[in-house]
Amino acid sequence: MADDIDGAGEAADLLAMAPLMAIDALPEVDRRRVLRLLAATDDHTRDEFAAEVAAARESMAQLSDLTATPPPAGLRDTVLRHAEQDDAQGAARDGGSTGRSRWRWAAAAAAVAVVVGIGGGLVGYAVSDRPGEPGQSTSDKVFAAPDVRTVSGPVATGQASVTYSSTERAGVLVMNDVPPPEQGTVYQLWLVGPDGPRLGGVMTPNDVGTSTTAVVDDLGDATSVAFTVGDADEPERMISEPIAELPLRP
Amino acid sequence: MPGALRTRRRPPITLEIDAIENPALMPTRDTEPAELAALLERIARSDAAAYAEFYDRTGARVFGMVLRVLRDRGYSEETTQEVYLQVWREAAAYRRTEGSPIAWLIAIAHRRAVDRVRAETAATRRDLTYGARQVTALIDEVGEEVADREAAGLVRRCLGRLTERQAEAVGLAYYEGLTYSEVADRLAVALPTVKSRIRDGLKRLRGCLDGG
């Protein structure tokens, strides 16, 4: 598919990708292109595409009846406990005012947690979504690592820097004077590796202060981190080109 | 840094067919979409009891599908945990107009399973025939774990409507986690061929399921 073909051809081309999208068979680069084309296409084509995807997903969901396998008995407790802990963390982040996190982490094993910093430095605590691993240790480990490096660059009107360690495969992101995303949008942090980007975390307008700090627990094989602006209603979707990208050298 | 990426060859699994007394396997009924949707609405308001019930009613379908893709029980447990944490956090994002709750859930789970496969096995590809056999295997091997015999019979019959080539292409993509270009490489056929096999296969499956 190409971006520059005529309207009718483009619509047909786009719709032909719907079944592949529905079963996650698109390579990341094609997926991004489809999302970009979808954002630019007319409502009718977009609705038709969504209907195609939805119908295919209903079929695949019915297949899950056939493959149903009882999960290990202990998994139920783990799942319920994680939700409970998630709420507790949300309450802590929200200053104890609510029981529900305002964060809308999506995809990517919830590998990133963000806390609002004070005065530009790393503050108080970092949140890990992995129970049993003290969250603080990630940033400690990164700063103590022999191969600690820092890369920084502009994001919007502010500055972002990532201090990271290849051996720890973790990093700490600090953003200073980056304006919050507009209402209805979010900032998405992507960990870009050889297999394309994977979502590291999402920041809503409430999450971005004068100084914002995030701990990236699992950089995986990322060779850069990228920021995009996404739709708050679909925080896991990449719908724009990166507004900033910081290369991570090994 | 790529050297630090953990890779592990995933052994083939066999389906475990146990005698099951598990609420997760309760029959799929016509009322299920509405009931699960109501649970999701409660989950969006942090209702832990609704969350537990949602897990009990859907866990086997999520875990089973993820296990088919990952073929490692440990990875599958982790991925299932991630899926439900996402449900807990994003239940409010579910829209009834966009499909049934189970379709929403299985789509989330499949995406995560596929992400895991692609992150993990770029270097160590699995045995070549596994995914290709998956869809046709489902026609034969469905066992005691399926609670709703009537519905399962329908799905199985509908899978049988796919041509062997369609089933192979869909199986490689869905259960092996391959992209369509990888499927094309694997089968040594052109990209448009793979696209149309997947599209036609899914269309045929859907047409049969909808037609009952």
From TrEMBL, chain A:
Topology within the bilayer: Single-pass membrane protein
The keyword Transcription regulation belongs to this UniProt entry's keyword annotation: yes
A Pfam entry, by short name: RskA_N
Anti-sigma-K factor RskA N-terminal domain span: 14-61
Entry's localization field: Cell membrane
Keyword annotations of the record: Cell membrane, Membrane, Transcription, Transcription regulation, Transmembrane, Transmembrane helix
Keyword match DNA-binding: no
Domain Anti-sigma K factor RskA C-terminal: 106-229
Superkingdom assignment: Bacteria
Membrane-spanning ranges: 105-127
Protein name: Regulator of SigK
UniProt lineage: Bacteria, Bacillati, Actinomycetota, Actinomycetes, Mycobacteriales
Primary gene name: rskA_2
TrEMBL record, chain B:
Domain spans labelled RNA polymerase sigma-70 region: 55-121, 158-206
Transcription recorded as keyword: yes
Gene3D superfamilies (UniProt xref): 1.10.1740.10, Winged helix-like DNA-binding domain superfamily/Winged helix DNA-binding domain
Highest taxon above the source species: Bacteria
Keywords of the record: DNA-binding, Sigma factor, Transcription, Transcription regulation
Keyword DNA-binding: yes
Any single Pfam family the record assigns to this protein: Sigma70_r4
Leader sequence segment: none
Similarity annotation: Belongs to the sigma-70 factor family. ECF subfamily.
NCBIfam families: PRK09646.1 (NF007228), sigma70-ECF (TIGR02937)
Protein name as it appears in the record: Sigma-70 family RNA polymerase sigma factor SigK
Species annotation: Gordonia caeni
